[in-house]
């Protein structure tokens, strides 16, 4: 299970609170402060090619789609 999918398990374990507590205690991945899994695109959730300049926090794919709406101009 990847770090991004572990919250999906909570939906299944809501009916079993004892099992949920045990899962949180033993299986929950730690929160990342550095590395590729700490930076995540706010729009699509990708981990790679992250642009955080000016507090954008988007991957390069989403940035290309939304750049003109944000106010960036393409020079070429």
Explain this structure.
Helix content is 37%, strand content 5%. It has 76 residues and is mainly α. The longest helix is centred in the N-terminal third of the chain and has 11 residues, at 17-27. The protein is elongated, with a radius of gyration of 17 Å. The N and C termini lie far apart (43 Å). The model has no long low-confidence stretch (mean pLDDT 83).
CATH topology of the largest domain: 30s Ribosomal Protein S14, Chain N
For this structure, the quaternary state is: single chain
Runs with pLDDT <50, length 5+?
A: none
Largest beta-sheet characterization: 2 strands, antiparallel
CATH-defined superfamily of the largest domain: Ribosomal Protein S14/S29
Secondary-structure element pattern, one letter each: HHEEH
**Number of extended strands:** 2
- Tell me the number of helical segments per DSSP (H or I, 4 or more residues long): 3
Helix content: 25-40%
**Gyration radius, to the nearest Å?**
17 Å
Q: What portion of residues belong to β-strands?
A: 5-15%
**Alpha-carbon distance between the termini?**
43 Å
Q: What is the name of the CATH class of the largest domain? A: Few Secondary Structures
- Estimated structural class: mainly alpha
CATH 2nd-level architecture of the largest domain: Irregular
Please state the overall shape, judged from the principal axes of the Cα atoms: elongated
On the 0-100 scale, what is the average pLDDT? 83
Query: How many individual domains?
Result: 2
Order of adjacent strands in the largest pleated sheet: 1-2
């Amino acid at each position: 299970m990847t770090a991004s999918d572990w919250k999906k398990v909570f939906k299944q374990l809501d009916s079993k609170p004892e099992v949920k507590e045990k899962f949180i205690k033993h299986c929950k991945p730690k929160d990342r402060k550095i590395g590729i899994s700490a930076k995540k695109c706010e729009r699509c959730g990708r981990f790679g090619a992250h642009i955080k300049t000016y507090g954008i926090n988007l991957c390069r794919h989403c940035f290309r789609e939304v750049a003109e709406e944000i106010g960036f101009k393409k020079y070429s």
